[in-house]
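Record 1 of the preview.
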Amino acid sequence: MKFQWRKWFRVVHRDFGYLFFGLTLVYSISGIALNHLDDWNSNYIIVRKEIKVDNPGRFHPKITKPEVRAILEELGENYGYKNHYFPESGQIKIFLKGGSAVINTETGNGLLERINRRPFFREMNYLHYNPQVSWTWISDVFAGALVILAVTGLFLVRGVKGITGRGAWLTILGIIIPVIFLLIFFY
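->
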């Protein structure tokens, strides 16, 4: 009896596709997010808001915590005061839970910045960066599975649409694209 390698490739390809579906989503979505770090912060949502404090003369060098809290309440910012200091003359920085505010002590103009964890993407990015040795093993198994999926996928379709026909040209193109990119931008 002849070994039916195409049948086994189909079984392995199908079952690995199901088994590694979740990891494929994690690495592909987080990979896209990480590719665009210059466009957006995929780990945090940063909201900046201009603020104006009335009577900025209240920001004297010996301002107390209750006084700073009162000013924040006037701004409608009850975000959990932590601390404050004067990084330079004419400026106060107020640390808040999940953000900070920098205010000009002469004009009262300032900028409030809030930082919140971005749900969904932050967790996927965490996994993408291989946070622990155990996860590195999981990602290595996944990488090996991708190799198996790529190879078995080549032989699933027969005839002119398979690897001996159109599939061969598409496979060659898929190899040439990264080679050309490397030749242009790497060497």
